[in-house]
């Protein structure tokens, strides 16, 4: 993603207007194949808008999205090959667990014949710790189980990028703490490249290979968890993370007002890079 800008309100597509909110303000973001990258920031900083723009659910006012060399800015959501998982897993209440998971398989190599589909559903439910739940009604599931099913459904078609927007935030803290480690392990077992939006520090630091901190529409710093703790880059990031200011690294703002991160461990990564 290059120079991404998302504006809401009248004149959002270009004009200047007092009613316009700039939710995402010149963000460059690279995700390396197979990594889990958390987007962390306070409420209203633009995380969901950025994720939705990558998914194609929100139009970019400026900038571009690509997968490797493949431009995606004008490609509709369902053709991007990305998976989505939201806070409320949005399961179909009238379908059982197995048919919810199978829903994501339509049109993929696991969509038919039926034995192939069933085998994939079984494998996905095993992956998320719900082996044997195929015939369960989704209305009988706990919140945590429902989110596991939603994860299985998102992973089933093997998306090249999985976009998760606060996937655990509807659960209570204890369950969230239990599930976040498991979720990270599932993503790694499946070899999934993922962008994980959260406002919760612990969740981000537990689940992610790298954490990107967003503040007021800007991606201020992207680093491995340890590096971020050791060098939060700006006083604002340090304050948001509750860290002392010491150890800050230089951070520069580009001439176009966009935010670039120095010291990235993925200096050459080309946009959303497919897994090697
Ligand atoms: N559909 C919309 N129309 C107008 N403004 C919007 C819309 N969606 C988001 N915004 C505004 O854009 C800014 C960023 O919102 P966004 O939801 O992306 O942030 P967030 O970091 O995901 O916050 P939260 O964690 O609370 O969802 C906020 O000021 C918000 O009010």
UniProtKB/TrEMBL annotation:
SMART domains: AAA. Pfam families: ABC_tran. SUPFAM superfamilies: P-loop containing nucleoside triphosphate hydrolases (SSF52540). It comes from the Bacteria. GO terms for cellular component: membrane. Keywords: ATP-binding, Cell membrane, Ion transport, Iron, Iron transport, Membrane, Nucleotide-binding, Transport. InterPro entries: AAA+_ATPase, ABC_SmlMolc_Importer, ABC_transporter-like_ATP-bd, ABC_transporter-like_CS, ABC_transpr_FbpC, P-loop_NTPase. The keyword Ion transport applies. GO terms for molecular function: ABC-type ferric iron transporter activity; ATP binding; ATP hydrolysis activity. This is Thiamine ABC transporter, ATPase component. It comes from Serinibacter arcticus.
């Amino acid at each position: 993603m290059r120079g991404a800008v998302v504006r809401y309100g009248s004149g959002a597509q270009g004009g200047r207007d007092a009613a316009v909110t700039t939710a995402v303000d010149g963000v460059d973001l690279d995700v390396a194949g197979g990594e889990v990258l958390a987007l962390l920031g306070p409420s209203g900083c633009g995380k969901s808008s950025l994720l939705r723009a990558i998914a194609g659910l929100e139009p970019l006012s400026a900038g571009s999205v690509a997968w490797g060399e493949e431009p995606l800015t004008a490609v509709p959501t369902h053709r991007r090959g990305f998976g989505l998982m939201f806070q409320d897993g949005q399961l179909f209440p009238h379908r059982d667990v197995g048919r919810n998971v199978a829903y994501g398989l339509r049109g993929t190599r696991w969509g038919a014949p039926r034995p192939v589909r069933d085998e994939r559903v079984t494998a996905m439910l095993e992956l998320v710790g719900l082996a044997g739940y195929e015939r369960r009604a989704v209305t009988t599931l706990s919140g945590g189980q429902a989110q596991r099913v939603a994860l299985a459904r998102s992973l089933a078609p093997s998306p090249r990028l999985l976009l998760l927007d606060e996937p655990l935030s509807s659960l209570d803290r204890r369950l969230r703490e239990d599930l976040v480690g498991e979720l990270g392990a599932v993503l790694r077992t499946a070899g999934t490249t993922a962008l994980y939006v959260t406002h919760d520090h612990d969740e981000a630091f537990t689940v992610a290979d790298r954490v990107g901190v967003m503040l007021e529409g800007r991606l201020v710093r992207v680093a491995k968890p340890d590096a971020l703790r050791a060098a939060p880059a700006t006083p604002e990031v340090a304050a948001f993370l509750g860290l002392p200011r010491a150890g800050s690294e230089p951070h520069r703002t580009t001439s176009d007002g966009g935010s670039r991160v120095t010291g990235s461990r993925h200096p050459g990564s080309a946009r959303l890079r497919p897994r090697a």
